[in-house]
Design brief:
This is Amidohydrolase family protein. The chain is an alpha/beta fold and 378 residues long. It has 15 helices and eleven strands. The chain has a single domain, classed as TIM Barrel. The structure holds zinc ion (ZN). The site of zinc ion has 4 residues, from loops.
């Protein structure tokens, strides 16, 4: 194999994907399946993904993990690991977390909104336990009281306003300082959150900031079309924000405040799960795909357009994710490491849905001119 004139990168790691969720929510039988989406990941240069274990009501965390491991056995095209979602706090939680740790789990995910949200009292308890066990708590931050108050607003962006994220990030950031818990802010979408997290980092908080390609590249103008039919392609939580937020997040990548960029990949069918509910978007599926294009999107916007070094590109997409979740055999190229290698071509291409392996009928990036793609993945 000839890698001449191409970059050789360690395989990329996506720490935030929801490959089971559309089926679980009753939306879809045929999309977003583990086999197709891990193939799409690999085609784009991502060799490891982290998906989520979502326990059933009254199912123990260990049983949920075992169920998931069994369910996916033999179906993946790339390497995969799991984070476990915590939807309730039971008396034996500390013991359950210890068991998960023994099984190799490093990340515990919690929500401050949706039915699966925990109360603030429960959250601080979880963060205290995880701090003692050296586990990472991943938090989806949106203040549920604000979301509830705004739920009847017409525009999607007003239904889930930036203030909701800002409020929850502020609360969780202070909990992180108090409990000394390693805290991972998921899918950060707005400039105010960046400011808060930056301040907490300066105060010595063990916190990480994750954002996603769509928050760097797309904004809420997508929701303002006279017809929202097309706009439903871009429904995601938290929603796309303003251009100033795109800019603030890109700056935060350049100055090192952003630790990693994952996809929050959740692929629905545009025709079947989104477009037909445009008249009442509370029924439309929220979530967008990106598992294949993430490396190309980030390479284009940061390396080609903003002069970001390829070393820092690898840090955001591979090295930092491996460090945060203690995947010590990946994230770099060196003797003794797992040989997940991407031969990367600095080549222009136009996003065409036909070229994507993602199990859906659209891409939010369709028609975009990008630079950089995986030529070979080993
Ligand atoms: Zn997510």
């Amino acid at each position: 194999m000839d890698a001449e004139d191409n970059y050789v990168f360690p395989g990329f790691i996506d720490t935030h994907t929801h490959l089971e969720l559309p089926k679980r929510l009753g939306f879809s039988k045929d999309t977003n399946d583990f086999e197709t989406e891990t193939m799409a990941a690999l085609a784009g240069g991502t060799t490891t993904i982290f998906d989520f274990v979502l326990p059933e009501k009254n199912e123990s965390l260990i049983d949920a993990l075992n169920r998931k491991v069994k369910y996916y056995e033999g179906t993946a095209n790339c390497k995969y690991q799991f984070h476990v979602v915590l939807t309730e706090v039971k008396d034996n939680l500390y013991e359950q977390l210890k068991q998960l740790k023994r099984k190799g789990i490093k990340g515990i995910k919690i929500y401050t909104t949706y039915d699966k949200r925990l109360t603030n009292e429960e959250i601080i308890k979880v963060m205290n336990y995880c701090s003692k066990l050296d586990l990472v708590v991943l938090v989806h931050c949106e203040d549920n009281a604000i979301i509830e108050y705004c739920k009847n607003k017409h525009n999607y962006n007003f239904k889930r306003p930036a203030k909701a994220e800002e409020n929850a990030v502020y609360t969780i950031a202070n909990y992180a300082l108090i409990t000394k818990c390693i805290t991972y802010f998921c899918n950060i979408s707005c400039s105010k959150s960046v400011e808060i997290i930056k301040r907490i980092k300066q105060k010595g908080g063990k916190v990480y900031l994750e954002t996603c390609p769509h928050y760097l590249i797309l904004n809420s103008s997508k929701y303002l079309k006279s017809s929202l039919k097309e706009g439903t392609k871009f429904l995601v939580s938290p929603p796309l924000r303003e251009e100033k937020d795109n800019k603030a997040l890109i700056e935060a990548c350049l100055d090192g405040t952003v630790d990693l960029i994952s996809t929050d990949h959740c692929a629905y069918l545009f025709e079947e799960h989104k477009k037909k509910y445009y008249y009442d978007i509370s029924k439309a599926a929220e979530g967008i795909p990106g598992i294949q294009l993430r490396p190309s999107l980030i390479y284009t916007i940061l390396v080609k357009e903003r002069g970001f070094s390829v070393e820092n590109f690898v840090k955001l997409l591979s090295y930092n994710p491996s460090r945060i979740f203690s995947v010590y055999d990946r994230g770099y190229i060196r003797e003794g490491a797992t040989a997940d290698i991407v031969i990367w071509e600095d080549k222009k291409f136009k996003v065409n849905i036909e070229d994507l392996h993602e199990g859906t009928d659209y891409s939010p990036y369709e028609g975009m001119e990008l630079v950089g793609k995986a030529k070979y993945v080993l």
